[in-house]
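2.7 Reproducibility. Because tokenized structures are sensitive to small changes in the input, we list the exact sequence used for MCUR1 regulator, including any N-terminal residues retained from the expression construct. No trimming or masking was applied before prediction.
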Amino acid sequence: KRLYFDTHALVCLLEENGFTTQQSEVIVSALVKIMNTNLDMIYKDMVTKVQQEIALQQVMSHIGGVKKDMIILEKSEFSALRSENEKIKLELQQIKKQVTDEITKVRADNKLNLNLEKSRVKELVTSYRKSIFVLTYSITYSFFKMHAQQDRALTQTDRKIDTEVADLKTMLESHKLDNIKYLAGSVFTCLTVALGFYRLWI
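Resulting structure tokens (single pass, no recycling of outputs):
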């Protein structure tokens, strides 16, 4: 501990102002004790440079340990995320395969149904043609048989033929419209499945 004033000069100053030598020394001794006590109180709250360096090294060591722990944790978290991504990727591939299989199945079913509908329409057309042929033959036979009522029979026959033909055309148009509706529904189903797969993929 150092005193930053001259104690002897203070004693002399006190003597010059009327104090005896003994009184001056007692006063200076009391001041020194008070200053030492104050310094002791101050030093209790202070650290030395060496202690400060040791504390700094301890703090840096703790920081280094925390950094290592954070690196290890980050690596483990990254591994977990990568594993989760691989799992999600496999699930997406399975979903993609299922959607592809469903689309293929729907297309095959639609194609089969369309072919069956075409065959049915062809059979109906053939049947109607046969009916028309039989009807025409019957009308022709009646025409030669009923020569006296030729004009009236011909007119009635023409009307009947027109009606049958109109009915056949109406029926064919109805079948065409049903086929178009069926085909449009199939295409819309395929588009819906494809759109669902596209949203799942994104």
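The domain at 1-46 is CATH 1.20.5.340 (Single alpha-helices involved in coiled-coils or other helix-helix interfaces).
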